[in-house]
């Protein structure tokens, strides 16, 4: 578990970045959960400007074993999303998942608002970005279950990535063995 001080710093930072108390509660809970997901991993919370300036620049190496939670990220063709969760050493530009926290004052009150949210979700899916959408009531009543679901989703995505990487490495090894065999050489 991150220190109380670290959680408090994230809470203060998010109070300036997000639009509602449930979003702030969710952001702090996501930070805490991801900080504990894997031994030795860290979680950082960024504004969009900080992430673009300090993480996505080409001359900046990607932090290994780290999550980046970006609040209020502007996704082209979609607009601002509440939270985008990245694993920068895998992909600095495409989040593992987008998390939306829908307050009853702004979402699902009219058919037009529901339609806009559904269109945003479809646009994210077209970009290959999964979205997890929760109501503010979900967050306020049981943020523990909400962040556990988010962490399980992130964990599953990282397992999928590791499996793809293992398959790729195995295919490269097989290709290399075939090349060596052409010349009568064998790899161990």
Descriptive account of the structure:
It is a single chain. The protein has a five-stranded mixed beta sheet, sandwiched between helices. β2 (66-75) and β3 (79-86) form a beta hairpin. The protein has 188 residues and is an alpha/beta fold. Helix content is 53%, strand content 18%. The protein has one domain: Endonuclease, Chain A.
Give the tags.
188 residues, alpha/beta, Endonuclease, Chain A, five-stranded mixed sheet, 5 helices, 5 strands
Short characterization:
By secondary structure, this protein is an alpha/beta fold. The protein has one domain: VSR Endonuclease (Endonuclease, Chain A, 3-Layer(aba) Sandwich), CATH 3.40.960.10.
In terms of topology, how is this protein built?
Layout: H1 4-17, H2 21-35, E1 42-46, H3 48-54, E2 66-75, E3 79-86, E4 97-102, H4 111-126, E5 131-135, H5 136-182
Parallel strand pairs: 1-2, 4-5
Antiparallel strand pairs: 2-3, 3-4
Helix pairs in contact: 1-2, 2-5
């Amino acid at each position: 578990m991150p220190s109380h001080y670290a959680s408090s710093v994230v809470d203060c930072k998010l109070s300036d970045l997000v639009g509602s108390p449930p979003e702030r509660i969710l952001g702090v809970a996501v930070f805490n959960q991801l900080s504990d997901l894997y031994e030795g991993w860290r979680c950082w919370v960024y504004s969009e400007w900080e992430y673009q300036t300090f993480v996505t620049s080409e001359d900046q190496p990607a932090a290994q074993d780290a999550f980046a939670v970006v609040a209020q990220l502007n996704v082209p063709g979609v607009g601002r999303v509440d939270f985008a969760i990245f694993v920068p050493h895998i992909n600095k530009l495409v989040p593992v998942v987008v998390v939306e926290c829908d307050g009853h004052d702004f979402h699902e009150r009219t058919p037009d608002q529901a339609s806009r949210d559904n269109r945003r979700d479809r646009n994210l899916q077209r970009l290959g970005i999964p979205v997890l959408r929760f109501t503010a009531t979900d967050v306020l009543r049981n943020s523990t279950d909400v962040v556990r679901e988010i962490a399980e989703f992130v964990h599953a995505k990282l397992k999928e990535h590791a499996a793809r990487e293992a398959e790729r490495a195995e295919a490269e090894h097989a290709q290399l063995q075939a090349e060596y065999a052409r010349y009568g050489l064998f790899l161990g």
